[in-house]
C-alpha cells in the first residue's frame, strides 16, 4: 500500500474527515483527535500495511507509522485541508496528560532543526578532539555558529510551533519571542540592576536565549488575550486594533511575570533533576531506564524534550538523553535476541529489520512489532535499559547537545573540550545495554515464546 492509499484508509477508518478535529505528527506517529470515538475502527487500522500499531492517550489516537511518518502525513494534509498541521483547537479538561500533549505538539515540528544543530555540534567536538581543526580556525568558527543557531534562537522556533498549537497568528508570536531577544534587553544581561520598568514596575532581566518555557507561556498568553479582545472589536477595526492591543498587553505581562516565571521554572526543573540523580544516583538511572519502554508505549517520550533542552541550556549537558540512547539499544538488542529464536521466516526478518531501525534511533517498530507482542523481549528490554540507565548515571555520562538518540548521535557525546572519555563511556553503556537485552531475550525466549511457536506450528 502506498502512502496516499494508507493515509486515505486511516482517515476513513477514523470516521472520515468530518470526524477528525485535530491532526499532527511527531517522529514516528500520526496523532488525531476525534469528535466521535465510536466511529474509529482501531483493529482495522492496526491491520493496515504500513501501520505498526495504535495507541490512545488522553483521547488522542496515535497511529504508529515509524520513520515514514512524515511522508504519510504529507498525504494526510490535503485530505484534511491542513495548512498548519492542525485542523481546529480541541477543548480538553486541564490535566497532566493535556500538558504533556501540548508540549509534545510544540516540540515535534522543531525537532529537525534541533537535531541538525546537535549533530553538527557533536561532529565539530569530535573533529576538534581528533585534531582536524586548529584553535580559532575560520571554518570551525562558521560551522560552530551554524550549530548554535537553532539553540540560541530557540525562542523563535518555539514561538512559531506554539502559535500553531495555540491557534494564534504566527507573526505576532514571533514578536513575543523577539521581545525576549531584543538587543537592548540582551545587552542588559549581567548588570547589577535592571534598567527597564513598566508602569513603575521593574522588569527582571534574564538570559532567554536557548530558553524553553518563557516563550511558550508568552505565546499562550497571547492566544488568550487575542481571542478575548477579538470578541469585542467590530469587524472593520479587527485588523488594526486586535493585533496592536494584543501585543501591548501580552509583551509587558510576559516580560514582567510569565517569562521570569518560565525562566525560574526551567532552572529549578534542571536543579531538581540534578538533585534527584545526585541523591539517588544509579537507582534514579535504573528506575527511569526501567520504565522508559512504558513511557514510549504511552507516547509520552517526546514530552521529556523540554527538560532535556533546559538541562543543556542551564548545565551545558543532559543526564536523560544517555538513558534514552540506552533504551533504543535495549529495544534493538531485544528484537535481535528474539530474531535468533524466531522460527517463522517473515517474523524473523521483521525482527532483524526493526532491530536495525532501533539501532539507528527509531525504537517503535521493534517495540510494537516484536517486543510487546512477544512480551519476554519487552521485559528484557526494560531490565537492560534499567541497567544501562544505572551505568550512565554511575559513570556520569553526559550528552552535550540535543539529538535523537541513536547510533548516529554518538559524536554528540564527545566532550566540547576535545577529550574522548565521555564518548568511550557512552559506547560502553550502549554496548552493555544491547548485549544484556539480546542475551536475556535469547535465553528466556527459549522457555516461552519458542515453545508456544512450535505448538502453534
TrEMBL record:
The chain crosses the membrane at residues 98-120, 140-159, 171-191, 211-229, 236-259, 279-300, 378-403, 423-444. The lineage of its organism: Bacteria, Bacillati, Bacillota, Erysipelotrichia, Erysipelotrichales. It comes from Breznakia pachnodae. Residues 4-86 form the PTS EIIB type-1 domain. Keywords: Cell membrane, Kinase, Membrane, Phosphotransferase system, Sugar transport, Transferase, Transmembrane, Transmembrane helix, Transport. CDD domains: PTS_IIB_glc (cd00212). Residues 101-456 form the PTS EIIC type-1 domain. InterPro entries: Glu_permease_IIB, PTrfase_EIIB_Cys, PTS_EIIC, PTS_EIIC_1, PTS_IIB_1, PTS_Sugar-Specific_Components. It is found in: Cell membrane. The active site is at 26 (phosphocysteine intermediate). It comes from the Bacteria. This is PTS system beta-glucosides-specific IIC component.
Amino acid at each position: 500500500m502506498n502512502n496516499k492509499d494508507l493515509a486515505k484508509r486511516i482517515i476513513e477508518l477514523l470516521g472520515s474527515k468530518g470526524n477528525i478535529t485535530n491532526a499532527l505528527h511527531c517522529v514516528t506517529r500520526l496523532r488525531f483527535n476525534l469528535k466521535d470515538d465510536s466511529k474509529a475502527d482501531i483493529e482495522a487500522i492496526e491491520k493496515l500495511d504500513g501501520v505498526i500499531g495504535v495507541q490512545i492517550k488522553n483521547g488522542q489516537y496515535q497511529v504508529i507509522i515509524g520513520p515514514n511518518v512524515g511522508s504519510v502525513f504529507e498525504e494526510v494534509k490535503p485530505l484534511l485541508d491542513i495548512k498548519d498541521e492542525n485542523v481546529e483547537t480541541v477543548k480538553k479538561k486541564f490535566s497532566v496528560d493535556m500538558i504533556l500533549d501540548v508540549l509534545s505538539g510544540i516540540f515535534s515540528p522543531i525537532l529537525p532543526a534541533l537535531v541538525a544543530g546537535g549533530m553538527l555540534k557533536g561532529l565539530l567536538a569530535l573533529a576538534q578532539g581528533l585534531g582536524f581543526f586548529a584553535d580559532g580556525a575560520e571554518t570551525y568558527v562558521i560551522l560552530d555558529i551554524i550549530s548554535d543557531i537553532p539553540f540560541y534562537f530557540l525562542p523563535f522556533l518555539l514561538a512559531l510551533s506554539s502559535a500553531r498549537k495555540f491557534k494564534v497568528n504566527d507573526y505576532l508570536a514571533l514578536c513575543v519571542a523577539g521581545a525576549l531577544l531584543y538587543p537592548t534587553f540582551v545587552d542588559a544581561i549581567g548588570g547589577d540592576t535592571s534598567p527597564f520598568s513598566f508602569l513603575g514596575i521593574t522588569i527582571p532581566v534574564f538570559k532567554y536565549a536557548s530558553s524553553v518555557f518563557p516563550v511558550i507561556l508568552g505565546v499562550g498568553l497571547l492566544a488568550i488575550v487575542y481571542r478575548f479582545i477579538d470578541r469585542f472589536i467590530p469587524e472593520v477595526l479587527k485588523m488594526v486594533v486586535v493585533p496592536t492591543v494584543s501585543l501591548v498587553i501580552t509583551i509587558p505581562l510576559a516580560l514582567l511575570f510569565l517569562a521570569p516565571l518560565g525562566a525560574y521554572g526551567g532552572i529549578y526543573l534542571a536543579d531538581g533533576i540534578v538533585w534527584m540523580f545526585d541523591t539517588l544516583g544509579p537507582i534514579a538511572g535504573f528506575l527511569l531506564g526501567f520504565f522508559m519502554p512504558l513511557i514510549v508505549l504511552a507516547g509520552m517520550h517526546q514530552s521529556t524534550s523540554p527538560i532535556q533542552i533546559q538541562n543543556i541550556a542551564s548545565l551545558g549537558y543532559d543526564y536523560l538523553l544517555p538513558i534514552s540512547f540506552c533504551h533504543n539499544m535495549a529495544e534493538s538488542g531485544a528484537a535481535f535476541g528474539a530474531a535468533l529464536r524466531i522460527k517463522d521466516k517473515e517474523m524473523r526478518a521483521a525482527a532483524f529489520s526493526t532491530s536495525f531501525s532501533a539501532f539507528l534511533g527509531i525504537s517503535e517498530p521493534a517495540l510494537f512489532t516484536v517486543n510487546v507482542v512477544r512480551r519476554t523481549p519487552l521485559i528484557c528490554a526494560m531490565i537492560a535499559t534499567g541497567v544501562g540507565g544505572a551505568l550512565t548515571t554511575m559513570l556520569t555520562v553526559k550528552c552535550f547537545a540535543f539529538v535523537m538518540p541513536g547510533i548516529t548521535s554518538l559524536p554528540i557525546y564527545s566532550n566540547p573540550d576535545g577529550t574522548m572519555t565521555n564518548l568511550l563511556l557512552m559506547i560502553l553503556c550502549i554496548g552493555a545495554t544491547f548485549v544484556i537485552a539480546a542475551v536475556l531475550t535469547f535465553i528466556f525466549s527459549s522457555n516461552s515464546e519458542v515453545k508456544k511457536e512450535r505448538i502453534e506450528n
